Each structure stands twice: as C-alpha cells, then as structure tokens.
Amino acid sequence: MPNTRISHVPPGSQDLLAGDVRRRRRVQSTWFALAEEEGYQEVIPPTFEYEEVFTRSAGPELAARLIRFVDRDGSLVALRADFTSAIARVVSTRLASAPMPLRLCYAGKVYRQQAEGMGRRRETFQLGAELIGDPSPAADVEVLRLALRTLWALDIRDFQVNLGDIRFVRPLLAGLSPDAADALRTAVDRKDRAALAAGAREIGAPAAVARALIELPELIGRSDVLLRARSLASGPDAEAAIERLRAVDALLTEEEREHVVYDLGEIRGLGYYTGIQFEVFVAGVGRAIGFGGRYDGLLALYGADRPATGFALETDALADLLAEEG
Amino acid sequence: MRPLRIALPKGRMMDEALTLFDAVGASVEESARTSRRLILPSADGRFEFLPVKSGDVPTYVESGVADAGVVGLDVLGESDPDVLRPLDLRFGGCGLAVAGPADAAYPDLPHGRTPRVATKYVESARRFFAARGVQVELIHISGSVEIAPLLGLSDWIVDLVQTGRTLAENGLVVFEEISRSTARLIVNRASHKLRLEEHQRLIADLAGALESTA
User: Fold this and answer.
1) Contact of A244 with A140, CB cutoff 8 Å
2) How far apart are CA A152 and CA A280, in angstroms?
3) Domain CATH code at residue A324
4) What CATH code would you report for B94-180?
5) Do both A20 and A89 map to the same domain?
6) Which of B63, B64, B86 lies nearest to residue A191, judging by beta carbons?
7) Are residues A151 and A174 in the same domain?
8) Which contiguous run of DSSP H or E holds residue B174?
9) Domain check: are A89 and A195 in the same one?
10) Which residues of B fall within a CB distance of 8 Å from A283?
11) Would you call B190 and A282 a contact, using CB atoms and an 8 Å cutoff?
C-alpha cells in the first residue's frame, strides 16, 4: 500500500522539472533584462505577511482566496496573494522618503485558494512592475508598453490588450443599493444586453444613463470607439476617462495600437483600479493572462498617498506558450 | 484562420440553434447534421458547430476550446462560468420550479421536519432556499427526478418544467416557480478580444435574426 501523502502533492500544487523549469527561467530572465534596461529595480517581498496587508487593498474576491494560518503569537498571516499589496506596504514604510518616481519590478510565486475541479493551481508564478509617483498618461503608457515588449521579447505575436478606464462606468453605478450595483456590475462585465436593459429599467435610470448602460457592450473596438463613447459620457469622471484613453492612444506607436482594443465596459478591477485598466489575452489561452492599470488610491491605504500604475503577467501561461513552439 | 467554433447542446435546443444560424446564412447540410460527426461545419465556412452535452457547453467555452456556445440560463446558473453572455436567444423557454406530490406540505413540513429535496440543479436550489431562509437537505440525482418523491427519496423536487405534463403523469404539482430560463449566446472572453470583428458580426447577425422573427 503506497503512502498517498508521499506519492501525491496537495491539489493545486505541483513539482516543476526539466523543460517546465527552463521555460519559466527563460521568461523571468527575459523579463528582468527588459525591466532593468528600463530602470526598474527588483523587489523580493516576504512569502508571508500579516493578512491585513492583503485584505486592506484587495476586494472581497481576493480576500476570500487568501491562504491563511495562525502565527506563533496568534496573529493571522497569509501567503503572498499579490505582489502589488506587498510593494504598496514597502513603499509606504521603508521607501516613504525615497525620491519619486519609483520603478520597481518582481517575479515570483503568488498563492490563492482555488475551487477544486477547475484545473487551477493554488500557487502560480507572476512577474510584473509598479511605477509609483507619476500620474501622467506617459506613465500609463510606459507600463503598458513594458507589458507589450515582454510578450514581443518572448516571440509572442498573436495577442490583444483590452484597455478601458474604470471612471467611465463607475458613475453609472454610483448611488445604487449594493445589490442593484452588484447586479449591474455583473451585467456590464458579461456584456449581457438583456440584463443591462432590465437593470436600467429596474433602477429607474435617467435616459442618458440608461442609454450609456445599454450601449456599453458595443463600446469596444479601435480608437474610433473613443469618439463614440464621448457622446455617451455622463459627467466629469467619464469625460476624464475618455480624455485619458485618447492621451494614451496618442502616445502609442502604430505597431502597439494594433494590439490594443478599447473597451469601455472593461471593469474587472472595479474597487482596485482608479483609472485606466487592462487585461492581456493571448491566442491559445481562453482567459486573461495579465492585468494592469492605475491604482492611485491604493498606497494611501498603507499611509503614503501616491499615484501608481503597474501590471502583472502570469509567468506559467507565458512559459506554456514557449512550450508550444518546441 | 479557422472558423469560429460554436458549442451546441445536443437535443432540441441544438435544432433550434441551427435553425437560427440557418437564418443568418450559416446552414449545416442535412447529411452532416444526421451523421455522427464530432464537428459540423457550416456551408458558408464561417462556423463549425461542436455538439456536446448541455452541461458541458460552459466548460468548452470558458476554456476557449470553443469560441462561443448556446446554452440555457438554467445551466449557467449551475456552473456560473466566467464567460460573456451577450444575447438572450429567446428559444428553449422553460422554468425551474419546486414541485411535489399534490398532498405534500409546502413550504413547511409538519412537526418542523427538514424537507429533503431531490434535484439536478443543486446550486440553483441552494440559492433559492437560502434566499428564503428555508433550510433543506439537497439530494443530487442525475435523472428521472420526478420519481424521487414517489419512491420516498425526497419530499419535494426542484426541476425544469416545460409543459408540466411529465409532472402531472407522476401526480406532482408545481408549488412555486424559481426562475425562467431561455437559451443564451455565451462567448469566451479571450476569443472575443482576439477575433473581435467576427464576434461582433455574429452577435449583430443573430440579434438581427431574432428581431425579424419577433
């Protein structure tokens, strides 16, 4: 009778050997070479932290997925679920008086609970960067460009970045009951026309808001979408969103623009991001393998109010794409 | 580039879906439809259809193996896949309902006994009873749910009701409807971005066809 505690590893964990290790190292070394060239310095935050570091910034979705345990003194600690939270803590404490802007990068594992049966791992490799102290569109583009260049450096060509600005949708959900806001947020996220129309009726939305909600699933495409969206923008926040996306678009090269889809209904990071946000989609992988954006309010939660923007890519997914090339 | 791959639920909903695709110029030849082929190409070359069990449609679409799919809202309520849901296709209408023998008590059993409820739709049933604050014991079974109360396995059932005939034949009545369901178009998130123009055309075509039959 074999001992199954030795012959298996817990669900969602795994050993990496041979090619799986080499491909991950190749992704990481490509990444660090690129990041260093752009002036980003590596940070290695601890593997576990007081859980508050993560619950303070993360929405309820991530907070529910922390892998926690009780420390010697009874404090709750959690395995690193996210590099950005840990880096926000470092910047607000040890680097509080460092000259801005700060350019920081990282690569390592993050740990999150996953439902069983979906084939998802509980420990995954990520890489990414944070640019802290610069509120400009140029900073947004610098970070977005770094993500694009990472994919190109790995010879990944067939990909699209889905780019939106959270300030376009946020005012449409303002002032609603939590349940109504949650239902509408879900409908926007799923581009569910029927639910959006029903939701707009249910909340008795003014005509302009109802029209914007119903049109949201269509507000996706190349830069001409930004012109269409401008006529639907309601209020200063939504106008600032369009203005920022147009400024970003103007700074992109023609080659970069081919990989950017503007999507005003992009709201995956509601509650975390405060300005532009993006997701990275690569041919052959059915879900986003990267995400990023501006999170100006986040560092204030740790005591240092600074504008910030950043991104993370899933190293494992990138490594698997290298495998397909042989 | 390969055609968009659309997962369809085998059975009546697949026939209705193919009729809708036919209306937008993407027909499947009769010989292919009746064959046991795993993938059915549309004659215009735009799509290939992947017939699978209805409960598996969300899995194929969420993983990206299929670019899009057609599936009932009731199935989405069970697996809650992370996919886009752009269109209500309006066919395949049915209701999820709590039912039981005509003489069974509902919603309270005598002496405060905890009701046992047999169903294929465990998640939807759990959400419904939880929202009502009713504690039940859910029993997951995978077919012929309507015989469960007759055999003494459960007090009530939660099941799909289309005409109510199957229920009546087994001496059951609907106590309460939980939700209405129709077929939805679902789309993989990554495919939607990587092949945006094709997906936008598909959604516009189907919406147009629904409009003209409305």
Assistant:
1) yes
2) 13
3) 3.30.930.10
4) 3.40.190.10
5) yes
6) B86
7) no
8) strand B172-181
9) no
10) 190, 194
11) yes
Q: Which of A272, A263, A273, A265 is nearest to A294 (CA)?
A: A273
pLDDT of residue B133 exceeding 60: yes
What was the pLDDT predicted at A272?
80
Whether A275 maps to a domain, the answer reads no
Instruction: Locate the chain A residue with the closest alpha carbon to B88.
Output: A194
pLDDT tens digits along B23-70: 999 998 887 777 777 899 999 999 999 999 999 999 999 999 999 999
A residues 194-253 near B, CB within 8 Å? 194-195, 217, 220-221
> Is residue A241 within 8 Å of residue A257, measured between CB atoms?
no
**Do residue A293 and residue A241 come from a single domain?**
no
Q: What is the pTM of this model?
A: 0.91
Sign of the dihedral defined by the CA atoms of residues B181, B187, B189, B192, in that order: negative
A219 is in which domain, residue-wise? 167-268
Interchain CB contact of B111 with A (< 8 Å): no
Q: What is the topology classification, in CATH, of domain B4-92+182-213?
A: D-Maltodextrin-Binding Protein; domain 2 (3.40.190)
For testing contact with chain B, the best of A287, A289, A314, A321 (most B CBs within 10 A): A287
A&B contacts, CB < 8 Å? 57
Q: To 5 degrees, how large is the angle CA B66–CA B70–CA B71?
A: 115
Query: What is the distance between the alpha carbons of residues B125 and B130, in angstroms, rounded to a whole number?
Result: 8
Nearest to A31 by CA among A315, A256, A288, A257: A315
Please name the residue of chain A whose CA is at the shortest distance from the CA of residue B182.
Answer: A194
Which pLDDT belongs to residue B31? 79
- A278 within some domain: no
For CATH 3.40.190.10, the residue range(s) in chain B are: 4-92+182-213, 94-180
Q: Is B65 on the interface with A (CB under 8 A)?
A: yes
Same domain, A291 and A149: yes
A157 reaches B (C-beta below 8 A): no
**Structural domain ending residue among the three candidates A268, A300, A317:** A268
Are B194 and A288 within 8 A, CB to CB? no
A184/A231 Cα distance (integer angstroms):
21
Domain count of the fold of chain A: 2
Contacts of B85 in chain A (CB under 8 A): 190-192, 195
The closest alpha carbon to B28, from B3, B47, B10, B8, belongs to B47
- Is the domain of A131 the same as that of A36? yes
Name beta bridge partners: A132: A102, A308
Nearest residue on chain A to B188, alpha-carbon basis: A286
- pLDDT tens sequence across A88-106: 999 999 999 999 999 999 9
In this prediction, residue B35 carries a pLDDT of 74
Residue A273 domain-assigned (yes or no): no
Side chain identity at residue A80, one-letter code: R
Low-confidence residues in chain A, pLDDT < 50: none
